[in-house]
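quick one before i forget lol
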Amino acid sequence: MAGAKNPDFLKRLGIEWPILQAPMAGTSTPAMAAAVSDAGGLGGLAVGAAGVEGARRMLSDYRARSNRPVNVNVFAHAPARADAKREAAWIARLRPRFAELGATPPAALSEIYTSFVEDDAMLALFLAERPNVVSLHFGLPDATRLRALKEAGILLLATATSLSEARTLAAAGVDAIVAQGYEAGGHRGMFDPDAPDDRLGVFALTRILAREIDLPIVAAGGIMDGAGVAAALSLGAAAAQLGTAYIATDESAADEGHRAALFSDAAHRTVMTRAISGRPARCLANRFTALGLDAEAPAYPIAYDLGKALNAAGKAAGERGYGAQWAGQGAPLARKMSAGALTREIAAEIR
């Protein structure tokens, strides 16, 4: 039976349905998260790209909308190592694309996000605000930070893309593991983006982790409806996390270019690329992914500084094809409705 080793997982999360809305930087919003949580799932806020004040505002906005549990997500990647020569080459490589748009690239690039592994202000915010769940992507902070969060009564989720990563997470004391399959949209949660990637699909990974790890497993990747959630539960998952399913909802912050691409042929041709941000991430096929520049990109998130600048230049010129239009392989199954209605529909489909 699904989640038989962890029958109280949903109760611990404070939710009715085994549905977690993925916290998607730039796409999920407090309104989306509140709608999902009020419908019985677990809403997610992505604050890793927002900074501590942005995170504070998002939590405040969420709590003004809902008193239900919420998952707050941060990035726990190794801080980037700057490489001025490589970054200059990257700027030069993309300069012609800027020129086509009548724009000039930035003269230099910077590390635009602070990793949670060294963000004392974000840790202090979490300890003061005590969100129900904190989830970690790209790895783990040190034991002191994990212990502080757990002692504050915060449940910890973390992403694994392999059994070895899951074992590391379990040994560190997280409460549940998000099994991210290769189908998933957005950034791969792998600890080391330069290490070999086994590229396990969500169902193979979920089944392996459910058998080998004595923790609740949350399946993530390509799951768009109740049939997908039910399949994950039948393989031993305690719940499923859905991201791409919520991109087209009313409360999403996805821009018109992203929404239009989601309902185009590009949805059938998602691409794993490092070119946009410096880390592997699955994107709808667009002008950026067509450049095929993966091997040249600087470290994450330094490369993202240029990627965002190119997207801004494109949008200013009426070109939407340079966006970080993240989406998983289930993109053709996307639906347009409110986040609450979608959550209730998925729950009905599970039944």
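fyi The longest helix spans residues 84-100.
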